[in-house]
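Input set for joint prediction.
Command: fold jointly, output tokens.
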Amino acid sequence: MRVWRQRTFPYAIVVPFAVLLAFPFAWMAITSLKANTDVYNPTKTWSFHPTLASYGFLLHHTGYLRWLKNSSIVGLLVVVITLAVALPAGYALARLAGRVGRSLGVAIFLTYLVPPTLLFLPLSRVVAQYLHLSDRLWSLVVIYPSFTIPFAVWLLMGFFKAIPQELEDAALIDGCSRFGALVRIVFPISVPGILTVVIFTFSLVINEFVYAITFISSATNRTLAVGVPTDLIRGDEYNWPGIMAAILVVSVPLALVYNLFLNRFIAGFTGGAFR
Amino acid sequence: MAVVAARGSRLRGLRYAAERRGVLATLLISPSVLLIGALVGVPLVLAVYLSFTDATAGSLTGKWIGLANFRTEWHDSIFRGALWHTFLLTVISQAIVIVCAGLIAHALVRNFRGRWILRFFVLLPWAAPIALTVTGWYWIFGAGIPEASVLNWFLVHLHLESTANPTNWLGTPRAAMGSIIAVQAWRTIPFATVIFLAGISSIPQEVDDAAAIDGATGLKKFWYVSLPLQLPIALVAVLFGVIFTATDMIVPYVLTNGGPFNSTQMLTTWAFQIGIVSGNVGQGASIALFLLPLLAVVTIGMLVFARKAEVT
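tokens >
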């Protein structure tokens, strides 16, 4: 009896929550397979002739592919900038600077908490008046590191702390310079950690909404996060199956990759603080 | 010959300096610090400055008008509403999150069949881009047509409401506020679950063993052993949740854009409305500035936690 209760406890809790939390995605998938004429018909809520027409509509009659491209370009550029700046800092904070480094690490991380909704007004003026980047994707490339760098420095600091100092000391004794030890010993071991930072930085960029809607005004320069909820919804013709398809096509692959790297993410995220 | 030797020694001197810990560390860290200073520090100062001016769209300066913006807001019922809604949204959604995430994490930490796929489902709301999924929610709530809402289909078939009078989820003040709270909780639960999970698994096995030897089981063990040990990490999850929720603009913007009749206006959506849509940059900045005290409280909470974590 007791064993049985122990066995079923996780299912009794997790299954209802999993159903509740995942239901919106199921409903999106179902809607995306309907014909546009069926979506408002309550008698066709669950029984209808499935069609892939909405996916075709999405690719051929909307700016979707364009937005996907815009988001990817901005994402890749921001990832490169972020790694270039955050890799050395994360390493130095984990290894070289000791107690001061710890406080500095926490301070950098705290800047991650300053929200875009507090900064978007002054930044919108800076982007327009001083950088002259209004309605250009470059404005996002310039501004996004403001939240990706603090985030990445913190994660990388956590990862580098987990690599034993002895490994580097051995390389130094063998005649490696400190920089050489970094490039030849530390970076190769941290590849999984760095990959985690790449994934999560990229996903932060895909998610960003406030700056993108403030700085970008023309439909061709929109990113996914803004294009789908504004142009697709507030356009003249609602095509709900198409909109649902638009959400799923991006969300499902991103969620799968996210899940693969989640354990590493937790290790880095908490590794910086709880040890 | 002498020149070459001098240059060589200077190079060696540079290399020697770079090898020294302090110098190298400064060299590696300063790009991050400088960039963050330019991209977060400067705009933050500008945001504070702007809120004391009457700057409008097209200028970054404006005239210094002291506390006039804040005085106007204090007498503005929409602003007061926004402040109150932000508070309600944050407190209620985070209360829901703590209870649900605590339950899920305690179940998920065990090893059982199908755990991977269940965890995947639980994490979906956090892993998928929120601006997109909240658009999905807009449709689930009926997108302005109550008959099309799948939620109403369930309610009708459970005999909780009649077909003649379905709920207009985003069109009536109370239902709209409830919808925003629900979506905000929905998307924060997975994050809190993940952090709780990390907290539970960070409790060393020895503690569990010791508790077992002392005869502590079930609820007792949870109350006296597990809970106190998880409290600090739970605090981190809550602090993050509070920041994410109070400063979020996506969910209210896409679902209701503050309506109906400003009944779901948040500080963020109102700052956007005034600052960008109406072009009163100074006034908008002063509205967003009300997020700053919250940020300060959370920052202090984090610092206290960081110190505690260092001691243990």
